[in-house]
Amino acid sequence: MSALRTHAETAEWTTFERFDSAAWPRDTLRWCYLVSPETTGSGEFEMGLCTLAPGGVHLRHHHRARAELYYFTSGRARVTLGEEEFEAGPGAAVYIPRGMTHGFATVGDEPVEVVYVYDVPAGLTRPDTFWDE
């Protein structure tokens, strides 16, 4: 572990298949943490990269204790944020307040890639992902 940095090419990628049978195989998101307590020692933020293949869905869910940010780097997605739905693509940034239901699905035949960031509040109890579908 480096105290300051890591790289997506050498990061450990995972899916819900590894630990959440409630979501797998309906949610096909693949992700890696680039900044986290385990990768860099960060206790304030977690940041990573996620990908969703064409036809894929990241199920609607919420985090009771954490806010989240998405920054779309490639592909197009239909995003659900609370009661709102909209399309997002490269360059789009989305703020997701604590407790708000959110998810996304790919649009078209390109994979979607998203940089995500969570805050890490003091006393966070994991898991903090609760499925809304």
Automatic annotation (TrEMBL):
<dbReference type="GO" id="GO:0046872">
    <property type="term" value="F:metal ion binding"/>
</dbReference>
<dbReference type="InterPro" id="IPR051610">
    <property type="entry name" value="GPI/OXD"/>
</dbReference>
<protein>
    <submittedName>
        <fullName>Cupin 2 conserved barrel domain protein</fullName>
    </submittedName>
</protein>
<dbReference type="InterPro" id="IPR014710">
    <property type="entry name" value="RmlC-like_jellyroll"/>
</dbReference>
<dbReference type="InterPro" id="IPR011051">
    <property type="entry name" value="RmlC_Cupin_sf"/>
</dbReference>
<keyword id="KW-0479">Metal-binding</keyword>
<dbReference type="Pfam" id="PF07883">
    <property type="entry name" value="Cupin_2"/>
</dbReference>
<feature type="domain" description="Cupin type-2">
    <location>
        <begin position="49"/>
        <end position="118"/>
    </location>
</feature>
<dbReference type="InterPro" id="IPR013096">
    <property type="entry name" value="Cupin_2"/>
</dbReference>
